[in-house]
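INFO batch 0412 | record 1 of 1 | parsing
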Amino acid sequence: MKQFFFAWIASCCLALSGSAQDVKILTYNVYHGERPDKPGTPNFQDIANLLIQRQPEVIALQEIDSMTLRSATIYGEKLDFISKLSRETGYRGYFGKAMDFEEGGYGEGLLVKKGSKYHTIKLPNPAGGEPRSIAWVKAELKTMEEFYFGGTHLCHEFEENRIAQLDSILSYADSLDKPVIWVGDLNFTPDSPEYQRIPSHWKEAGAMSDSTMVTYGTPENGARIDYIWYDSRKFELVEYKVLPLPFSDHYPVWAVLRMKKEEQ
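INFO prediction complete | emitting tokens
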């Protein structure tokens, strides 16, 4: 009887490890920690509450200030936004600096439940303008499955820069040895040359759900420029939403992806 019981437990564990695993994802341009509709008003607690309520596995935040004079104006002291958000939410945080700004840094933020190999890659700027980067982490799910997750904010001025930055991201993503998801504020629309340039094995969650909801601005005068991209050979889409929240000039973009089972 004992042998039967332990065999049953083992079979259950194997079934669990072989089951499909869902990954909840959120990307959000947070307008450097300030409410655009209420200048000088922090949006930190609104964002922290959103993450606590939603509990995504991986989060990418754009327009992140770290110890800048601007953050001191908004919060009364220089603020390391990601470190504070990490403490408040229980996530592991990482700040990927794109450039120096007002005595501190400005760039990308990642928050994950479990991760390793955090790193930042500078992106090309052939036409000049603001420096840009992408922050990466190797994230790990409860089932011990691993994938790479990247968050970025592409150039808002020059198509030439965005194309070069895309090429850099895609080349690096295709070199990785685990499934990949990359997200962010890409500053181009679905009808742009940049969007059309992305190879077909990369799928975009909004398009796959037939969503036309804007992610920036107002429904009457906005655009869909924030995206969640995934390798369709490794993931399939379960859910996609744009969350209509007023904490920034962008909206949070949410998706659930299911990691495909490996062929035996």
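INFO post-check: The chain has a mean pLDDT of 93.
INFO record closed
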